[in-house]
Amino acid sequence: MFFRLLFLLPEFPWSTRDPIQYPDSWGYPGVPVSRVVVALWLGSMAAAEGERKKVIIDTDPGIDDAMAIFVALRSPELQLLGLTTTFGNVHTALATRNALHLLEAVGRTDIPVAEGSHVTIKKAAKLRIASFVHGADGLGNQDFPPPAAKPVDQSAAAFMVEQANLYPGQVTVVALGPLTNLALAIELDPSFPKKIGQIIILGGAYSINGNVNPAAEANIFGDPDAADMVFTCGADILAVGLNVTHQVVLTGSAFCNVTISEAPFLHFDTSPFVTDADREKLEQCDSKYARYLCKIMGIYFDYHKDAYFIKGVYLHDPTTVIAAVNPSLLTCTEGVVRVQTVGITKGLTIFDNTKKRYGEITAWSGMPTVKVAVTVDAPAVVDLMMQRLMTDD
Ligand SMILES: [Ca+2]
Hints:
There is one protein chain. By secondary structure, the chain is of the alpha/beta class. The chain has two domains: 2-46, no CATH class; 54-247 and 315-389, Inosine-uridine Nucleoside N-ribohydrolase, Chain A (Alpha-Beta Complex). It is built from 17 helices and eleven strands. It has helices at 2-6, 13-16, 33-51, 63-73, 92-105, 131-134, 156-166, 180-188, 192-195, 218-222, 224-231, 242-245, 278-284, 288-296, 298-308, 316-325, 378-389, and strands at residues 53-59, 78-85, 113-114, 171-175, 198-202, 237-240, 249-251, 312-314, 330-339, 349-352, 370-376. The strands form two sheets. Strands 3-2-1-4-5-6-11-9-10 form a nine-stranded mixed sheet, sandwiched between helices. β1 (53-59), α4 and β2 form a beta-alpha-beta unit. α4 (63-73) runs parallel beside α16 (316-325), α7 (156-166) packs across α8 and α8 (180-188) packs across α11. The protein is globular and about 60 Å long. Bound molecules: calcium ion. Residues 59-60, 62, 65, 88-89, 176-177, 317 line the site of calcium ion. Pfam families: IU_nuc_hydro. It comes from Paspalum notatum var. saurae. GO terms for molecular function: inosine nucleosidase activity; protein heterodimerization activity; uridine nucleosidase activity. One of its GO terms (biological process) is ribonucleoside catabolic process. Its main location: cytoplasm.
C-alpha cells in the first residue's frame, strides 16, 4: 500500500532526466528514487510526530522545575500538551505566574497553562513553601516582570481529565510537585487511572532519608493523602525518588569532586557524580535556556552547599522528565507503595516488594503495584540535560 501511494507523489524535475528505478525484483518497478526519498522523509516525519510522547507537566516552579520544563521543550521525543500548576516550592498562584513566565521567557506561549489546587486534597491551607531553596519568587529572587499570558479557564485536574479523554492511553503526566491535582483528577473521573497512559512521579525516598525530615520527601510531604490516593489508584505509575535523584548532580565548579566525606548524610555510592564543571559550561554557552537558568541558579547552589555540603545541585525534576524522554536510563523494581499520612513519619513512602505473604492482611495487601526507580545512569542523564539546554531551537 505504502509503495502504491508513491505513484501519487510529483516527480522532481532534476530526476526526470535520468530517473533511477528500483529493480523489478522489489515488486514495484518504475518508482523513481527521488519519490521514494521524499516518501520516506514524509513517512519518517509522520512517524516522529506520531511517536512523540504526549506529556503534561504538573509543576511548582521552582528552579529545577524550570530546568525540567526547558528540557521537555527541547526534547523532540516529547510533545508538551500543557503545564498544570500546584503549590510546593511556592504557592499555587505564584507557580502559575512562574509557569507562564518560563514559557514566555523562551518564546513558547503556545503551551497552555492550567492552574491547580491552592489547598491539599483535604482542604488544608497550611502548605510547606520552600523559599529557602528556590527564593521567595521561586526563581532565584530575580524579580521578573509579570507574564502577559493568562492560564486557561480550566482547572489542572479538568485539563488532565480532558487530555486523557482526548488521547486515551497516550498521555503521560510528569508530576514534579505534590500530587493534589492528580488526586483531584481521579476524584473528578474515577476512570482517569485507566485512561491516562503513565504517571511519572518525582516523589518519595525509598530506603533512604527524606529531604524535608528524615522520613519524608518534599512532594509527598506536601500532600500525603493525595499521594496515597495516587499511588494506589491502579494507573501505570513510575516513582522517581530521592534514592535516584540524589545521584544526579549538576556540578558547580572545576574543583567540585564530591566525596563521601563531603556528603556525610548521603546513604549511597557517590561515585556517579560527574566531575566536569557543568555550571561553567552552561555559563559559557549562548543558548537562551542556559542563559536564563544561569541567572536563577545561584540560590539553589547555595542551598545545596549549606544543606548537603556539596558544590553542586541535585537534578530532581530534570531527571524525572528525562525518565519520560529516555526510560532506559533508569531501572526499576515493582511493588506496592503506601504513604504515611499522620504523625512524625507523615509523608513516608513505604514500599512492599510483595515477595512475602504476611500472616495478616495489611494496608498493602491487594493494592495495585507501581514501578519505583532503583538505579540511574547519572552521567548520561546529566549529559542529556546539558545537551538539550546548551543549544537553541
Ligand atoms: Ca518541583
